[in-house]
Write a structure and sequence with these properties.
Radius of gyration: 24 Å
Largest sheet: 6 strands, mixed
Bound molecules: FE2/S2 (inorganic) cluster
Strand order of the largest sheet: 12-11-10-9-13-14
Number of strands: 14
Helix content: 25-40%
Shape: globular
């Protein structure tokens, strides 16, 4: 370790090391806990930002894991301080955790700024917690290491593995079609979530944890360790040890997060067939880090990196299988000629050094580049008069026949309108229709909920239809699948062209050509635009009003305008 700091250079020294009235107060209140100066003097103070809560099953173990991190911090000669932060349980928080990602990012940044801390360990994993914690840590700029919560164990139903989300949607359609009994449905409810930890398909949680590792923000191999595996607390303690050295080395996120590190993250995202949500989060993180990243970069990289992880929803297996196959180090070693191996990681080593010697143990789980899981790309960015600033799709999780399609729109004004209509037995709909959902974007949802995998109309489900083309300004759960075109920007709520679609309009999609087109004349669209009226704001006051006033569109990463950028903020005055 190369020490770049002396104890008196530590940020916490301003709180604890001075001989003035305020420092007296700070020290005396540490003594109030029962600590003595030997506990803190000359040591890095490490903030452990913990997103544990009683209502987040994905983070149920993080209360205990914080103790493992503390153990490591103490071993390495640091002083650990656990700070609770908003938990964002994807499964419970309504209307959408996306409404609160920036809230947690802001909370993380300000917790780190306002307290006497020299470094941070970030404990998260459930969907939005990863980008939020990282965005806050980037903006604060202290040395920080990310500790992923890890996936839960495989689900199990009568000996068949069950995947979070993906199998819920699958068996729900079978139940709607009358193929599953109530008793069987109840058995699935008992078997699909068997331990603490995040969703165990390649949903948003697993994708974002892997991206954090690919960017160099976790210890090598951390992201795929199952939450219930004894390797997990060992990794937590190792992270606690490592952050203390990182403080002395002054290894900040800015030294790790180069444009090449973001490219590595996108390449890994594509190889995993990762969640479309990651696109929004990566753009937001890049803008915080001062790295220019637009949607086109995802499309370019998607064309050069095949899906090689055979994990649902793009593949067949689950995160536990991925860990046994060698995890992310093995996957990155398999695609190493595509990665920038000189990128620095929080381990102090380059990415190339951290994956040296990694092997694939199970070939059906991690494929070679020349034998991918899908011939389709993981992500396609489409553009056209319906989405002037772009929209995204996951071709690898779609039925091939829909990748080039023209059909009449069946348009819904909002979620409730859609939910009412979709169950009607007399709905005028065919498998060739294109389902369109409006007002589900960042401002309209509000919070851009995961409504983008619109249900197949009941009448068609009963007839055996399992995929249709669907277009919305919403997001989609990373556990979802199907021919869903998402993140249409600008959104309909602010007058994007999606607002002008009417039932019966023809919509054309050509995924290979990266094109989406509303076949309505410019004159007719201009007439509809003149008649369009902006909806009432969603919130009269409160956080929601602030959210609505400052949230960016999907192609901008949905950050708040006042949180973006890399402009430095002065340290707090201590008087
Ligand atoms: Fe927490 Fe899926 S609900 S990761």
């Amino acid at each position: 370790m190369t020490r770049k700091k002396r104890p008196e250079d530590l940020r916490s020294h301003r709180w604890l090391g001075m001989q003035d009235l305020r420092a007296f107060g700070h020290r005396s209140r540490l003594r109030q806990f029962g600590y003595d100066s030997v506990d803190w003097a000359g040591k890095p103070l490490i903030g452990i930002i913990n997103t544990w809560s009683d209502i987040n099953p994905c983070h149920a173990h993080l209360r205990a894991r914080a103790e493992d991190v503390k153990r490591g911090v103490l071993q390495a000669g640091g002083f650990p301080i656990e700070l609770p932060a908003m938990s964002l349980a994807e499964i419970y928080v309504k209307p959408s955790t996306m409404l609160y990602r920036n809230f947690l990012a802001m909370e993380t940044e300000e917790l780190l700024r306002s307290h006497p801390l020299d470094g941070a360990v970030l404990l998260g994993g459930c969907d939005k917690t990863t980008p939020a914690l990282i965005m806050g840590a980037i903006s604060m700029g202290l040395p920080a290491i990310y500790v992923p919560a890890g996936p839960m164990l495989r689900g199990n139903w009568r000996g068949t593995p069950l995947g979070s989300g993906s199998d819920v949607w699958k068996y729900w359609d079978e139940k709607r079609a009358g193929n599953i009994t109530e008793e069987q449905w109840s058995e699935i409810e008992n078997g699909i979530a068997r331990s603490f930890g995040t969703c165990m398909v390649m949903g948003t949680a697993a994708t974002m944890m892997a991206i954090a590792e690919a960017m160099g923000l976790t210890l090598p191999g951390a992201s795929a360790i199952p939450a219930a595996d004894a390797n997990h607390p060992r990794m937590c303690a190792a992270a606690g040890r490592r952050i203390v050295d990182m403080v002395w080395e002054d290894l900040t996120p800015a030294r790790v997060l180069s444009a090449a590190a973001f490219d590595n993250a996108i390449k890994v995202h594509m190889a995993l067939g990762g969640s479309t949500n990651a696109i929004i989060h990566l753009v937001a993180m890049a803008r915080r880090a001062g790295v220019a990243l637009g949607l086109q970069r995802f499309d370019e990289i998607s064309r050069m990196v095949p899906v090689i992880a055979n994990i649902r929803p793009s593949g067949k297996l689950l995160m536990e299988d991925f860990f046994y196959a060698g995890g992310l180090r093995a996957l990155m070693a398999e695609m190493k000629e595509l990665l920038e191996l000189s990128c620095l990681t929080v381990s102090g080593e380059t990415l190339g050094e951290t994956i040296a010697g990694a092997e694939v143990y199970l070939r059906d789980v991690i494929r070679p580049l020349n034998d991918p899981v899908s011939s389709e790309n993981a992500t396609a960015v489409l553009q056209g008069n319906l989405a002037p600033r772009g929209c995204v799709m996951k071709p690898s999780a779609a039925e091939k026949r829909l990748l080039r399609h023209r059909g009449p729109a069946l348009a819904f004004d909002d979620y409730n309108h859609m939910a009412r209509e979709i169950e009607r037995d007399d709905l005028d709909v065919t498998p060739d229709h294109v389902l369109v959902l409006k007002n589900a974007g960042p401002k309209g949802g509000p919070g851009m909920p995961e409504w983008g995998m619109l249900p197949i109309p009941k009448k068609l489900v009963k007839a055996g239809v399992r995929d249709m083309l669907r277009v919305s300004d919403a997001r989609m759960s990373g556990t979802s699948y199907g021919s869903c075109i998402l993140h249409v920007a600008p959104e309909s709520f602010v007058g994007g062209p999606l607002a002008l679609v009417q039932t019966g309009d023809e919509i054309e999609v050509d995924v290979a050509g990266r094109r989406i087109h509303l076949a309505v004349s410019d004159e007719e669209l201009a007439r509809r635009r003149a008649a369009w009226r902006a909806p009432e704001p969603r919130y009269p006051r409160g956080y929601g009003a602030m959210f609505s006033a400052h949230i960016g569109q999907a192609d901008e990463g949905c950050d708040f305008d006042f949180l973006e950028g890399a402009a430095p903020i002065a340290e707090p005055e201590i008087h």
